[in-house]
């Protein structure tokens, strides 16, 4: 266990909610980067920022083709970093994609991407986690409400809320095919969940959130206070969101699949220590221990 | 089995798609009723008509209170017309609500409601089915794609597509809480589904569509051709839709429950005969045999 003060206790006997102890924006107004001052303010307030077109159509085609190549590569399929859906035997996610694929590594180093992360986190950044997600339609389940930070803190040992994620759409997100939902402003409250972390929890939690799931009462309070925003947008659009946003997604009964690349940047001044509420670290391809700044 | 010509074969060995053999609008331009000519045309084209406010806030309060009274009445709970969700033991639907509750009976007789049905179907109408639906949040599942007519024809013996449904919202339908989705224009093609009707299929099909479910291939073709429209709207809004619209709903992971009253009007010139593709009739509270015109 970590001896640093645990600002965000979780996975204890009872659910407990505490105000955020960290800023949302760690940079200063003159921290360089592509995000406008107005957008920074709305990110600070809501906890997210929707970018209608982060990458162009030709780049979407490039990354989508690379995604298809990876998920059809037997070597990638055999790699423990690939998450295969039992029934269909189809790949749902490939982790550490920035290490497996040079094309996705370039995307991580792209100033439109890493530049925004540095600007928000006010420092150099490294990749805490990256993955490509391939979510089919025809009833594929969504992902229930959770805060990523609650898991990254409890199971990966990230001390502070100085982490930001970006989900870049490689297919269109309609209002019908189970897109990302966020409760705007929920990032300003930390919800410590009840229930100890089971051993090897990560194996299950990649398919379905269980440990670290808010109670119905908490969800009702959050939703009544904050409402819920659904993110739609064309392929190439992106959603930046603070590590402590309460988010989830519904199932997708449409025939329209959803693919995206998901990158988590963490400040080099917030590197992972030992898990705050879990018996063991998660594997490095899920919670990085390589803190090399993105260059 | 019925000896009338079966215009819409289904539940055979293979899935088969045939063009609609019936008009969508059975009235003539001078058939009286509240729907404008332009709205009638859009209903003919899309197969549905969204009415932003069919009933007022005070009426919503009245009907919502009546819904709450019914689902908390032990006698209603014990009635076979109530569908109780096994795990939570909560009532999900109450059928034949227009017979159980005089308040809902008045709604059925309301000219804003039955007047629209007569106008669309070009004749007197009776209630083929009515129910109140109470769909909680927190992950309650939706209802997969299906055409109601496919079931009403196969299992209730409705000969022709001369039936219209209205879903009147008693709570707000957001873009996040698993609202009704329809493929606009899908009503102009009948999709006969593969697979015989199991005995007592209705007991299962009230919770989850199984017999009468389109294949992935068919859904992909329909969705590519027609797209998918999600219906949102405040409490008091309503969606009228043709009996052969391909429709479904996703799950609801939000805390916001969805309640509605669902009424199916059938033309008195299209009364039920014997099922076209099922061994036995469904119970009368699901597929009426009382053809008394609504007055």
Task: Name the features.
295 residues, Jelly Rolls, 4-stranded antiparallel beta sheet, 26% helix
List the helices and strands and how they pair.
Two copies of one chain form a homodimer.
Chain A: E1 16-19, H1 37-46, E2 48-51, H2 57-71, H3 74-78, E3 82-85, E4 90-95, H4 97-100, H5 102-109, H6 111-121, E5 125-135, E6 143-147, H7 148-156, E7 163-169, E8 180-182, E9 189-192, H8 201-205, H9 216-226, E10 229-230, E11 238-242, E12 246-249, E13 258-267
Antiparallel strand pairs in A: 1-9, 2-11, 3-4, 4-5, 5-13, 6-12, 7-11, 7-13, 8-10, 8-12
What is the structural class of chain A?
A: alpha+beta
CATH architecture of chain A: Sandwich
Per the principal axes of the C-alpha atoms, what is the gross shape of chain A? globular
- Name given to the CATH homologous superfamily of chain A: q2cbj1_9rhob like domain
The separation of the N and C termini of chain A measures: 32 Å
Mean pLDDT value of chain A: 95
Number of helices of chain A: 9
Greatest chain-chain contact: A-B, 27 and 27 residues
> What is the number of strand segments of chain A?
13
In the predicted model, the low-confidence regions of chain A spanning at least 5 consecutive residues are none
Which strand order does the major sheet of chain A show?
2-11-7-13-5-4-3
The CATH class designation of chain A is Mainly Beta
User: Can you tell me the number of structural domains of chain A?
Assistant: 1
Give the topology string of chain A: H per helix, E per strand. EHEHHEEHHHEEHEEEHHEEEE
The biggest sheet of chain A amounts to:
7 strands, antiparallel
Helix content of chain A: 25-40%
């Amino acid at each position: 266990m970590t001896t640093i003060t645990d600002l965000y206790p979780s996975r204890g006997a009872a659910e407990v909610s505490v105000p955020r102890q960290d800023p949302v924006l760690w940079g200063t107004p003159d921290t360089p980067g592509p995000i406008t001052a107005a957008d920074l303010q709305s990110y600070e307030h809501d906890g997210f920022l929707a970018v209608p077109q982060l990458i162009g159509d030709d780049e979407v085609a490039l990354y989508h083709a690379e995604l298809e190549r990876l998920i059809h590569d037997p070597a990638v399929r055999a790699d423990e970093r690939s998450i295969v859906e039992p029934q269909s035997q189809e790949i749902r996610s490939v982790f550490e994609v920035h290490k497996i694929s040079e094309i996705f590594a370039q995307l991580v180093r792209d100033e439109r991407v890493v530049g925004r992360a540095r600007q928000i986190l006010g420092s150099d950044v490294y990749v805490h986690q990256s993955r490509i997600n391939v979510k089919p339609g025809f009833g594929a389940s969504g992902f229930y409400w959770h805060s990523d930070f609650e898991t990254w803190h409890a199971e990966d040992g990230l001390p502070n809320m100085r982490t930001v994620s970006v989900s870049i759409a490689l297919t269109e997100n309609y209002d019908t095919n189970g897109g990302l939902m966020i409760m705007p402003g929920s990032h300003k409250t930390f919800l410590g969940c009840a229930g100890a972390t089971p051993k090897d929890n990560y194996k299950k939690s990649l398919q379905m959130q269980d440990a670290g799931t808010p109670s119905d009462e908490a969800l009702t309070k959050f939703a009544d206070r904050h409402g819920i925003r659904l993110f739609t947008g064309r392929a190439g659009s992106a959603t930046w969101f603070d590590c402590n946003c309460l988010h989830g997604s519904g199932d997708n009964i449409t025939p329209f699949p959803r693919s995206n690349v998901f990158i988590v940047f963490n400040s080099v001044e917030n590197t992972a220590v030992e898990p705050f509420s879990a018996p063991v670290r998660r594997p490095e391809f899920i919670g990085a221990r390589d803190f090399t700044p993105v260059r």
